[in-house]
Design goal:
It is a single chain. By secondary structure, the protein is α+β, with helices and mostly antiparallel strands. The protein folds into two domains: 30 residues; 87 residues, Beta Barrel (OB fold (Dihydrolipoamide Acetyltransferase, E2P)). It is 23% helix and 34% strand. The longest helix has 24 residues. It is globular and about 30 Å long. The chain starts with a helix and ends in a 9-residue tail after the last strand. About 15% of the residues have low confidence. InterPro entries: DUF6152 (IPR046150). This is DUF5666 domain-containing protein.
Length: 129
């Protein structure tokens, strides 16, 4: 009986910790952390990552490092973008939504253009011209 009580307390503690950690763990998933209007960034790629939870590009924009989040890996690859599509030194133009936190240099991109090729990673969110 004492062992079941300990297991119950451990499960309760784990659940409580999970609930407390959840908001920060999911803070950058979805769009709630971004501005509503679209912005454009142009810079030089310093790093390409296509993996979980989101593909990302690290880019240099006028001497400042920006993180450009793309879609989850399967969706990014479905859009035609892979780690072979870009490399450090390539110029990229990203269209998307900047972070609400003005101190955070982060964008959630809906479209990127690298080496003259455009990738709509969130095609249903691409702004119409």
């Amino acid at each position: 009986m004492r062992m079941l009580s300990k297991i119950g307390r451990l499960l309760s503690l784990s659940l409580a910790l999970g609930l407390v950690a959840s908001p920060s763990a999911f803070a950058h998933h979805g769009w709630s952390w971004t501005e509503d209007e679209y912005s454009e960034l142009e810079g030089t790629i310093t790093q390409v990552y296509v993996g979980n939870p989101h593909a990302t590009l690290e880019i240099d924009v006028d001497g400042e490092n920006w993180r450009v989040e793309l879609a989850p890996p399967s969706q990014t690859v479905r859009a035609g973008f892979s780690e072979d599509a870009a490399k450090p030194g390539d110029t990229v133009t990203a269209i998307g939504n900047l972070s609400l936190d003005q101190n955070e240099r982060r964008m959630k991109a809906v479209r990127i253009t690298v080496n003259g090729k455009t990738y709509d990673v969130y095609p249903n969110r691409v702004p119409s011209n």
